[in-house]
Amino acid sequence: MAKTLRDIAQKLKDSNKNVQLIYAFNGTGKTRLSKEFAKLVRAEEGGLTRDKILYYNAFTEDLFFWDNDLDNNQDFKLKIQPNSFISWIIEEQGQDLNIISNFQHYTDDKLNPIFDLTNNQVFFSFQRGNGEEREYVKLSKGEESNFIWSVFYTLLEFVISERKIIESEERSTHDFDDLEYIFIDDPVSSLDENHLIEVASNLAGLIKESNQEKLDLKFIITTHSPLFYNVLHNELGNADKYRLEKLEDGTYLMPNQRKDSPFAYHLFLCEQITQAIENGNIQKFHFNFLRNLYEKTSTFLGYEDWKELLPQDADDGVKNAYKKRILDFAGHSKHSADEVAELNPVHKEMLTYLFNDFIERYHFYKKE
Known about the structure:
The chain is α/β, with parallel strands linked by helices. It has 2 domains: 5-64 and 141-253, Rossmann fold (3-Layer(aba) Sandwich); 265-362, no CATH class. The protein is built from 13 helices and 11 strands. The chain has helices at 5-14, 30-45, 49-52, 58-61, 84-92, 96-106, 141-163, 193-212, 226-235, 265-279, 284-301, 316-330, 345-362; strands spanning 19-23, 53-56, 64-67, 77-80, 111-116, 121-126, 181-185, 218-223, 240-243, 245-246, 252-253. The strands form 3 sheets. A 5-stranded parallel sheet has the order 2-7-8-1-9, sandwiched between helices. It has a 4-stranded antiparallel sheet with strand order 3-4-6-5. A two-stranded antiparallel sheet has the order 10-11. Helix 6 packs across helix 7 (141-163) and helix 11 (284-301) packs across helix 12. The N and C termini lie far apart (46 Å).
């Protein structure tokens, strides 16, 4: 039965599921749906919208725009539309260092954001240790998307860490005590496939942590990206999954999506690792890919721990060492550079060995 976006928003709000995942083509109405949902929460609950719901959508990205310094072509700055949301995150909640850490994780640990909230702007420069004068740079569209997402993702991490403190009076802030909904609309519009998978995997980890801790937060995620949808589909097995469709008369359908995986996620992972090995371009995120292959295959085969899929000729001590190293590189780690070093030839050889062993024993993917 066809519905209005308001009807769809009401259906999502009435659900008792902790996670609802929606796939839709661009232009279908995902961003408008997020606004309808926010208006519905505000109308029914009263008070500030962010007391009950946090949402990320195209309007979040529109808070930022570039001043390209057309006169001198050197002092590039990312301007922030005056709003209470950004100052709330950075000034009131003190999350600037965590935003920087998350942003550098996705981009480059030498690329530094410099906040100037007095003038509603952010500068970016590469860290230099030779006393050279600082040069401000303009981000690529993908880097810009990573930065904006890092602001929101940092807030999510902070929300979950605060809600995990059971005694309300022991929390550092009470701004999230009544928070119920987190609506995320397509945070991956300008990301390449590698960053897209990492964003999805890290987001799924936070959601699973929230669910395991019974934090009473409900997540609604919409996307036009088959790959982003598929990562979350695989990571969040108990989520309700839908497909949003717009009809010619302006009404909508939102049928349930099939429970089996609709996109070739695992094939993509195998192809990416194979190409990295052949090209000699193995990066940290390829350990994330390998971990996902182990986890999904172990679930399919009925193993309790994906460590059991590691090479059969290795004893438990060696398997534990392999597993720890994979997790060190695959996780959205807060470890220092001393704790998790950059990839060296030994690490690359290990990934190559483990992946080839996996393919040979489980015939999951036929290399050309």
